[in-house]
Inverse folding.
């Protein structure tokens, strides 16, 4: 949550409004914590591209540029960027799910980070909460 608040100021990042406690489905007996996020009128990128198959290369490039700008300005290594974590609102990219992301301030040396994450000994690899 702290990390989400840190990147929340960029217009390419889905806004985080808070937490609520609710039943996730009618079959749940217990309450679960749920993130309250900004609404994205066109849903996830995968569905958006399927519904708009006649996109020009210019339109595709524009979406890719927005995505790159969002990641660059947020100073984030996302670590799980895929079409389900990219939302569309008013034809603009909104990046979501920063659950396993890291700030670039802690991850600037790509070569050593890659070597660390793919170390031969699994015990020497960083844990998800590091």
């Amino acid at each position: 949550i702290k990390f989400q608040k840190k990147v929340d100021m960029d217009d390419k990042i889905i806004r985080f409004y808070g937490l609520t406690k609710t039943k996730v489905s009618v079959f749940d007996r217990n309450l679960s914590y749920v993130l309250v996020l900004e609404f994205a009128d066109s849903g996830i990128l995968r569905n958006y591209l399927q519904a708009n198959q006649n996109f020009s290369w210019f339109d595709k490039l524009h979406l890719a540029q927005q995505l790159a700008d969002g990641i660059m300005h947020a100073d984030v290594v996302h670590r799980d960027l895929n079409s389900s974590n990219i939302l569309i609102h008013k034809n603009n990219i909104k990046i979501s799910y920063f659950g396993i992301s890291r700030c670039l301030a802690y991850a600037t040396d790509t070569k050593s980070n890659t070597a660390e994450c793919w170390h031969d000994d699994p015990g020497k690899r960083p844990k998800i909460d590091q």
Remarks:
- The longest helix spans residues 57-74.
- The chain is about 30% helix and 20% strand.
- The radius of gyration is 17 Å.
